[in-house]
Amino acid sequence: MSNVFDQIKALIPEEKHAEFMGIVLKHTDFNSQAVDVRGKVVTEITYMACSVTECKYNDLFVADRHTNVVDARTLISEYLVRKKRWRLTDVGKYLRKNHATIISMLKRHDSLLQFDKGYQNVFNLFQQKVSEYEKNNQKFESYLQNGSADTASATLNVLRHRAYNH
User: Fold this and answer.
1) Tell me, what's the pLDDT at 43?
2) 3-state secondary structure of 59
């Protein structure tokens, strides 16, 4: 997998490495499972959650109880725990919350999904964005594995444009 890291780093400017790979430098104190080695998943998913809930990225990491911010944290927690199989403590460290708060967010997600139409719409939109992102990310990784750096570079630009403009 480090070979994929090296290939990706070769395609992007050095100052963009941390952003692209999903390694938020403020959060380097937690274990390596918290940085998804398949690429920029953490940051991309976080930006998608902020996009659908209309909150600011930095608001996720401070004490903010506005509904849209809590919804974004809930979406991120649900995705990382249930889809990516992260440990509760790792998600908590990423969001700067206790693991018990993450459990509470997962319960909140289940309840809102069952009864709240607004949250259902937000969750469906988030799922669509994540599905599109994952599909495109798999295409990008297949280009890297086939060794075509020019094709991978061009594809990377298209995929990043799609992820941020949907």
Assistant:
1) 83
2) helix
Q: What is the pLDDT of residues 95-124, one digit of tens each?
A: 999 999 999 999 999 999 999 999 999 999
Contacts 24+ apart (CB under 8 A), 124-131: 125/52, 126/48, 126/49, 126/52, 126/75, 126/79, 129/48, 129/51, 129/52, 129/163, 129/166, 130/45, 130/48, 130/79, 130/83
User: At a CB cut-off of 8 Å and minimum separation 6, what does 125 contact?
Assistant: 52
Low-confidence ranges of the chain (pLDDT < 70): 1-40, 139-166
pLDDT of residue 25: 34
Give which of 20, 25, 19 is closest to 8, Cα–Cα: 20
Architecture of the domain spanning 2-164: Orthogonal Bundle (1.10)
Delimit the domains of the chain by residue range. Answer: 2-164
How far the first Cα of the chain sits from its last, in Å, is: 29
